Amino acid sequence: MEKPPSEVPATVEGAVNGSQDAAEPGVPAPADVPHARRNLVVLVFSNLLAGVGVASGAAVGALLAESLGGTSMAGLAQAVGVLAAAVASIPLATLAQVRGRRWALSLGYALSTIGALLIVTAAVVGQLVVLLVGLTLYGVANATNLQSRYAAADNVGSGARARTMSVVLWSTTVGSVVGPNLAAPGAVVGSGLGVPALGGPYLFSIVAYLLAGLVLAVLYRDPAGSAAVSAASSAVGRVGTQDDGGARAEPRRTGALAALRWAWAHPRARFAVVTTAVAHGVMIMVMVMTPVHMQHGGMSLQLVGIVISLHVLGMFAFSPVFGWLADRFGPLRVAVGGMVLQGAAVVLGFTAAALVPEPGAHAGAHAGHSTAAPVLDTEVLTAVALVLLGLGWSACVIASSAVLASVAEPHVKLPLQGATDALMNYFGAGSAALAGPLLAWGGFQAVNTAGAILLVPAVVTVILAVRAARPARPAGDLVR
After folding, report:
1. Digit-coded pLDDT (tens) for 183-218
2. Residue 430 C-alpha from the chain's centroid
3. DSSP string, 213-277
4. Which of 108, 227, 261, 403 would staple 410 via disulfide (CB 3.0–4.6 Å)?
5. pLDDT tens digits for 15-33?
6. pTM for the full model?
7. Using CA atoms, how far apart are residues 254 and 226, in angstroms rounded to an integer?
């Protein structure tokens, strides 16, 4: 009789402490995975394309929504996309469990392609409802991009998972940089096809998503030992068979809530779920209010763009470094480092907000008491804070993903990954919604204070994970 998930804690508790060459039972070593190298190239290329698709439209989405529905609709464009990614995470993981990563990722990009087509249509016909439907499907690409990192982990052994996932995540950097710069060319291309300027960039999104989905459908092959294939084959294999007691065994399927309950009972898995959601929530809360804070402080739009670009660079550009560190020293240590980075970011953000001169301070300043130095200080501190915020997010997400990718029980692994990504996006959407009222109530200092408070659950779970692992390790070997 097969063991229930509660009887296999070692598959997540013991296999992710540090650099280990042995894979979990049923997971082949890298040399044994057919098409592994090709699969990884396909995932990097498709993620790069999808990153371009996401960023191309993100630069003009709020403006398009505003043009069709007024200023009150501008923020809805971002909210719809985030919520769509949250809702899509679990169905995509379920499809991966049943049919494999190949079809789940391909379908995700196919839906995003349809979404981009609807957005272009909405721009042409001027229909807000069509735009919102399009933005909903368009947001599925974010969930698909996130799940591609787990697909990368399926193709390697346990000693290389974190850095392999980080390389796939790193490929998003190219899209994040190139995408926003396609707004002007997109407007030119769109005008030649009769598409309004704000709908033109989505033409590039259509091409990018379509190519990403086709590349995955044609070239990607799920490894034989992956969780998706193992779950599907084991379910099929149990149909029509009998267990030890003579009763007919039914395929066992774990839902998202059941997977989260399982994670709650396992300290490392619980740490991974909570840290992923918390790190994303802190990042979103501070990041979305930074441009507003900077504008209130009299900083230029050009400076705002530079600071946000540096933040995005921090999120993705150094992810291979954190992946290597997680494989070498263990995900717990890297996650703690990420929390420290995000903690430093909110402290610096709080300090930068305190240095912003009050409105009218320049007019009332006495001779010999220039406020130029404090303004310069807050510009530098804000930029450094946003870079640290992005670096902390990268470290926490990669480390947590390495833990989730090391869950060997196939009936828990994929549903837990989908549920974590959904929770991550819901937490981000909630944090973004709270950030505005917090800024209005207590300024940027209140936003950073709330970010610091949000870090507390992650700190608690990592302490509990360390304590739970100590008895199983030699006395002289620190828990990693």
Report:
1. 788 888 988 999 998 899 899 999 999 999 999 999
2. 15
3. HHHHHHH----TTSHHHHHHHHHHHHTT-B-TTSSBPPPP---HHHHHHHHHTSHHHHHHHHHHH
4. 227
5. 434 444 333 444 444 445 5
6. 0.79
7. 17
34, two tokens = 């057919």
Do 137 and 112 touch, CB atoms closer than 8 A?
Answer: yes
- The 10 Å CB-count burial string (b at 16+, else e) for 180-209 is bebbeebbeebeeeebbbbbbbbbbbbbbb
Q: How many CB atoms lie within 10 A of CB 324?
A: 18
At 75-125, the pLDDT tens digits run: 677 778 888 999 999 999 999 988 999 999 999 999 999 999 999 999 999
At 240, which amino acid appears? Answer: G
Residues 241 and 251: their CA atoms lie apart, in Å, by 10
Q: How far from 232 is each of 72, 89, 249, CA to CA, in Å?
A: 46, 19, 15
The whole-angstrom separation of Cα 288 and Cα 304 is: 11
Residue 151 corresponds to which tokens in the numbers above?
């697909």
User: Over the stretch 402-423, which tens digit does the pLDDT of each residue have?
Assistant: 999 988 787 899 999 999 999 9
